[in-house]
Amino acid sequence: MRKLIAGNWKMNGTKADLPQLHALAESHKDATVDVVISGPATLLSRMAETGLAIGGQDCHPSTSGAHTGDISADMIKDTGADYVIVGHSERRTDHTEDDALISSKTVAGWNADLHVILCIGETEAQYRDGETLNVLLAQMDHSIPNAATAANTTIAYEPIWAIGTGLTPTPQEIADVHAALRAYLVDRFGGEGAAMRLLYGGSVKASNAADIFALDNVNGALVGGASLKAADFSPIVTALEQSA
Ligand code: PEP
Fold first, then answer.
1. Which end of the chain has fewer CB atoms at under 10 Å, N or C?
2. pLDDT tens digits for 152-166?
């Protein structure tokens, strides 16, 4: 399994930030892991010119039509991107996206030949109530389409309370959750589930990356804030390359 490190620039970045990507592309042109940056739609074409793998942050479930302001998976592919994130908690919260919609966006991504990074995660209240696994298993049941394979889909576990907060679960908690996610994927998808990449996301930074990447069933990370500057993201890429 080739590991994956994905940056998520969210609603950040203008052309003045492209040198960050050129620097990253230069530092990691021979990377032994997949390195992807999911940028704002306005920059994707120019980001693709850096030679780095590029992703969108969302797509509409339809291929085209009267959906003002939305972007289809085909349009994302057309920029030169090969990935798309779906189901990020900020989409689920800000745009009231539910699992059924995320499932249809996943299929749209596949149909455009995009690799889908599908996000799941529990709220802080659900975490405190001991509901984490119930929430995650239900999200996977309803948002991962049956045709998911290791080649077309990566699952990102992102505790919502860890995103952008500086908080992270303990290594043991991450390992326990990822073991349960792997068991679910194997049970549902067999060998494809065993080979599907599982990312951790939520306040990953250079100082905690190696400990997180050392955990079983952590096959990479989805990184928000620390992906904006090459100097912050590059050591995380290197930590993943150096992980066993
Ligand atoms: C994210 O938005 O997917 C994320 C993990 O953000 P951060 O790394 O900033 O917590």
1. C
2. 999 999 999 999 999
Burial 204-216 (b: 16+ CB within 10 A, else e): bbbebbeebbebe
- Pairwise CA distance, residues 204 & 200, whole Å: 8
Residue 15 neighbours by CB distance under 10 Å: 10
pLDDT tens digits along 155-205: 999 999 999 999 999 999 999 999 999 999 999 999 999 999 999 999 999
Q: How far apart are CA 81 and CA 37, in angstroms?
A: 9
Kindly state if the Cβ of 222 falls inside 6 Å of ligand 1: yes
What is the Å distance from ligand 1's center to 8 Cα? 7
57 ligand 1 Cβ < 6 A = no
pTM, two decimal places: 0.98
Give Cβ neighbours of residue 178 (< 8 Å, ≥ 6 apart). 157, 198, 200, 215, 216, 217, 218
| C-alpha–C-alpha distance, residues 96 and 2, integer Å | 33
Residue 90 C-alpha to ligand 1 middle, in angstroms? 10
Beta bridge partners of 38: 8, 55
Alpha-carbon gap, residue 129 to 137, rounded angstroms? 16
Helix 18-27 to helix 230-242 angle, to the nearest 10 degrees?
30
